[in-house]
């Protein structure tokens, strides 16, 4: 399995995951031409993308979806999120469906994709766990204001963990944004704080050399050093050291 983060932050989000001989995109929040360029830079031909999976329909996650029409790439999103997506050819639209309250696994011939519920101010946001036939697993959680046991269950066993560490609550309180925006960021349908992300990672990391990527950092309410320090400290509390038991990168 190979993971390439093409863009991450408050303005652009796009990840390429290659597994089972196929490459897929999680979100396409970068201009189409930039996605093409960045794919080629990491050795992936844009016309070889097997599918695009959308977490939610905010612009920083769907801006580059015209790529799908250009290369006839199927696009998967929940029924709710399709309400916020336009411009994708009808024959390329795919719906992540639920059965008995849980999302069904999506199989792409050697790649198994598991959508799971997240919590953000969108119609029906999800995260994704991706697994290949060899048992390698990757999970992607971009925007969510809280975590649940169901999310942990879907993320467990991942060799690659891509998760947002959006903000430090004290910096949010001190910033110049309107109180309504601050309340949204800190709410259960906003974004994960560094500490919330650290709590999730304490549940997930087993010291097997997992690769953690902290994504979607706020440029105003966080710093890479603060996010990194919070996670390293939390994992040290349970006996794991960066570089020895796991690898950490702040994107």
Automatic annotation (TrEMBL):
PANTHER family: EXODEOXYRIBONUCLEASE WALJ, METALLO-HYDROLASE YYCJ-RELATED. This is MBL fold metallo-hydrolase. The lineage of its organism: Bacteria, Bacillati, Bacillota, Bacilli, Bacillales. It holds the Pfam family Lactamase_B_2. Transmembrane segments: none annotated. One of its GO terms (molecular function) is hydrolase activity. Counteracts the endogenous Pycsar antiviral defense system. Phosphodiesterase that enables metal-dependent hydrolysis of host cyclic nucleotide Pycsar defense signals such as cCMP and cUMP. Keywords: Hydrolase.
């Amino acid at each position: 399995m190979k993971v390439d983060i093409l863009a991450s932050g408050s303005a652009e989000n796009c990840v390429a995951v290659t597994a089972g001989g196929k490459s897929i995109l999680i979100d396409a929040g970068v201009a189409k031409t930039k996605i093409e360029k960045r794919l080629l830079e990491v050795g992936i031909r844009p016309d070889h993308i097997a599918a695009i999976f959308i977490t939610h329909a905010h612009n920083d996650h769907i801006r580059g979806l015209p790529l799908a029409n250009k290369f006839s790439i199927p696009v998967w999103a929940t029924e709710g999120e399709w309400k916020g997506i336009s411009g994708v050819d009808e024959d390329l639209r795919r719906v992540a469906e639920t059965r008995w309250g849980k999302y069904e696994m999506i199989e792409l011939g050697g790649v198994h994709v598991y959508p799971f519920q997240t919590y953000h101010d969108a119609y029906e946001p999800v995260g994704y766990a991706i697994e290949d036939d060899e048992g390698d697993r990757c999970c992607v959680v971009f925007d969510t204001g809280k975590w649940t046991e169901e999310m942990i269950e879907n993320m467990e066993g991942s060799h690659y963990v891509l998760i947002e560490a959006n903000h430090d609550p004290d910096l949010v309180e001190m910033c110049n944004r309107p109180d309504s925006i601050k309340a949204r960021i800190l709410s259960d349908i906003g974004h994960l704080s560094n500490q919330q992300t650290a709590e999730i990672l304490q549940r997930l990391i087993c010291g097997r050399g997992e690769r953690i990527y902290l994504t979607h950092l706020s440029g105003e309410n966080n710093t890479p050093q603060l996010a990194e320090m919070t996670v390293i400290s939390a994992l040290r509390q349970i006996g794991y050291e960066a570089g020895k038991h796991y690898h950490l990168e702040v994107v």
